[in-house]
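User: Second chain of the day. Same drill as before.
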Amino acid sequence: MPALSDDGTVVAFATTPATDELTDGDTEATTPVTDEPVDGDTEATTPVTDAIDTADAATLEAETVEAVTIADERVWIRDRFAETTRPVAELGSGAPGISGDGCLVAYVVMRESPASAAALTAVDRCASGPSGPLPIGQIVDTAGAIDGIASAPAVSFDGSTIVWSTGDDIRRYVRNENSLVHEPAEIFDADFVPTPEVRTGPDVDVSADGRTVTFVAGPGAAPFAPDVANVYVWSQPDEAPPAIELLSVTASGLPGAASSGSPTISADGALVAFDSVSADLAAIETAPATTPFVVVVDRMASTARVVADDARLPALSADATRLVFQTGNALRVASLDGAVTDDRLLADVDPDGLAAISRHGRWVVFASAAPLGVEPADKGTDIWAVDLRPADDGDMADTTTTAPPPTTVTVPTT
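Assistant: Same format as last time:
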């Protein structure tokens, strides 16, 4: 799955041997949109419509890289403002995460020698300049490789904190401001002391300040495979002891009887969204939902509600105003303003994994092998960026930079 900076301009993604050669992105668009400003102060040449439940409600752009072959299994970093695409130094890298400011990229490198292991690695792309090769990343930690499964690390806004699941526990690393090396800070699972019978899932997320972590854990026989997974939050409040809170909770305060997962957290740590197939959760006690469904928990108000049923894989904007999720074979986005105030179709495709959304909900990035109306279609998986700004620019907060992104294309998805 791709990872996205808060302003929507930097995308980190991985190519794999299963991915065919990616095109150079020079295919002419059917309807070009030129020099669309990110800050939204000037109307775009072809503005995005504000229609709901229509396939033309999004502007899509193909973000593909040039001459990437199937042998190049590694993480790539696309700077949409600078119009550069650079690989990390390590072959065999994958599962990227990125800081909110777009500088620190953390990823996993699979190693076969001297023993099979997954190495959590980080590189500061901003320190290396806007172009040219990236340096070899700093190895933050290693864990046993489990059948090629890798957890994408979560990174705080400024890159000072990295959170990673090893399949057996959750690890939090904090950057030493003198050495600039990320060092272990805490190791935990569903309790403060990791226990062998508790396994952690691959999905983690972290608040902007790095002090609140949401993750998946449960009893299980194998790493990354809890038999019944539940969603938790670990937090370190100011001047208070750390706390672990169960979010996928029943009305009686117990963990859900069936699995929940894919947690995503707002920048302030107040809202967490996750998907679930557990029909006994307190969130659906008064409003039954079709499984799987997406729950939003307001930790400050101590409330939980279902925002979409027959839905999965949520991604919450950092400001908690927009929620992207998959339903059926489609990608949708909902507004969160006390209630779901609108629900619109982004693309009639089933994306490859989780989507990513920018801080204020304007940009959504996802991976898909579907051509989405672009001709000629290549045979591999492309990374797509969706511009959600409506035509009147009245209800969508903009990103934090005034620099224009690269040329976009309007793509019909019917």
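DSSP finds no helices and 30 strands in the chain.

User: Great, on to the next one.
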